[in-house]
Amino acid sequence: DSGVTQTPKHLITATGQRVTLRCSPRSGDLSVYWYQQSLDQGLQFLIQYYNGEERAKGNILERFSAQQFPDLHSELNLSSLELGDSALYFCASSASGVNSYEQYFGPGTRLTVT
Amino acid sequence: GESVGLHLPTLSVQEGDNSIINCAYSNSASDYFIWYKQESGKGPQFIIDIRSNMDKRQGQRVTVLLNKTVKHLSLQIAATQPGDSAVYFCAEKGGVGNLIFGKGTKLSVKP
Q1: Cβ neighbours of A45 in B, within 8 Å
Q2: Going by DSSP bridges, is the β-strand pair B105-110/B10-14 parallel, antiparallel, or unpaired?
Q3: Which residue of A54, B25, B60, B62 sits 20 to 30 Å from the alpha carbon of B83, by its own alpha carbon?
């Protein structure tokens, strides 16, 4: 158990809908990362938050957004969903400091868009 | 550009044998690498990391070797066990604090 929690575990929704994925980082970790894992693209970095502020962006679509709250939990919002958005979405967290690249992953949310 | 790739998509070994999983990277400026293990239905699990100022690092039953000359990384698992069956990813530190993952190698351990 990495200490990172994600909910829900599974999500099935229709095209055009909007969903919110939730992540709680390990206790004390200030950074939260979101990744998408699909069969054809592997693990792709989406976005990073550090202590409530957006820190870095990767291959995140404009239909997707995220935020990190004062209690450090994070939410990833996916809107106008398309079939191609079906994937596993992982949250990872890391501490600040020299070991900040040592990221610990949650169990993921499996999103299926029908 | 930055990219991390894997030589073999699948690897099958006998229980008790040693396993070697390889990874190539393209960015010669990369200074930090991580190996992750992902079991079916779970998130990636940190195994071991190495910085570019090292050639070798050992953990419990695992060793990571870094050859900067040929931009190659390998993960060695000693006395492979059925519980080692998983997909193994190498990852490279990206330019914005993220990790850039390779496609993964599926390790199957035969009893």
Answers
A1: 94, 98-100
A2: parallel
A3: B25
In whole angstroms, how far apart are CA A86 and each of A66, A77, B57? 18, 14, 37
A10 touches chain B (CB under 8 A): no
φ and ψ of B5, to 5 deg:
-130, 165
What does the pLDDT look like over A47-65, one tens digit per residue? 999 999 999 999 899 999 9
Q: How far A18 CA lies from chain B's nearest CA (Å)?
A: 24
Q: Which two tokens stand for residue A110?
A: 């499996």
Answer whether residue B96 shows pLDDT above 50: yes
Tell me which residue has tokens 């993952």. Answer: B101
Q: Which two tokens stand for residue B75?
A: 């993960």
d(CA B23, CA A71): 38
Shortest distance between the Cα of A14 and any Cα of chain B, in A, equals: 23
Which residues of chain A lie closer than 8 angstroms to B45, CB-CB?
2, 105
pLDDT in tens, B23-73: 998 888 888 999 999 998 899 999 999 999 999 999 999 999 999 999 999
The single residue listed with the structure tokens 């450090």 is A72
